[in-house]
Amino acid sequence: MRRGFLLLILSFWTTAVWARLDVVCNEQNCLQSGWKAYDSFGTSFDIQCINEECSQYGWIESSSAGLTKRYECLQGQCFQYGYDVINEKTKKVIQQVRCQNNDCAHQGWTQAKDQFLKMNVVCESADCFRYGWKAHFAGRVMHAISCLRESCYTYGWTQEP
């Protein structure tokens, strides 16, 4: 019963957890040129870096479903400190990402909607940018990310539920 309840709650948290996602970097440089993503439900996403520098300022995600989110870096360093995800329509923070030990690229991060819905992200082989990562919730792997050609932010990545 408890397991079913947790899965039900998580399903309302984000449908992206359950979808396959294919990501391709624009101009082979996600962190300056942004990226495009397509999920297995048919939704497409266009991500544009703020001031052409995603890792310092953040990015804006527009989906074909009509939702726009802004990802704002903390202290000008998304992959050192983390970032907040803001619904552009309501201007409310809908998710917080915080780097473990000030190093998202190697130590992973936590991803939280609130104090109860939190995923822990663990880097594969201690290098998220090269090998990918796995997101864990309530002791289960919710999705796994694999970098394309061992470089997520050059070529892109795939997410498997």
Could you describe the 3D structure shown?
With 161 residues, the protein is α+β, with helices and mostly antiparallel strands. It has one domain (17-160). It has 6 helices and 12 strands. A 12-stranded antiparallel β-barrel has the order 1-2-3-4-5-6-7-8-9-10-11-12. Mean pLDDT is 91; it is low at 1-15.
Label the structural class: alpha+beta
**Tally of discrete structural domains:** 1
Overall pLDDT score: 91
Biggest beta sheet attributes: 12 strands, antiparallel, barrel
Count of β-strands: 12
The 3D shape can be described as globular
| Biggest β-sheet: strands ordered side by side in the sheet | 1-2-3-4-5-6-7-8-9-10-11-12
Give the N-to-C terminal Cα separation.
22 Å
Order of helices and strands: HEHEEHEEEEHEEHEEHE
Strand content: 35-45%
Gyration radius, to the nearest Å? 15 Å
Helix content: 10-25%
**Can you tell me the residue ranges where pLDDT is under 50 for at least 5 consecutive residues?**
1-15
Number of helices in the DSSP assignment? 6
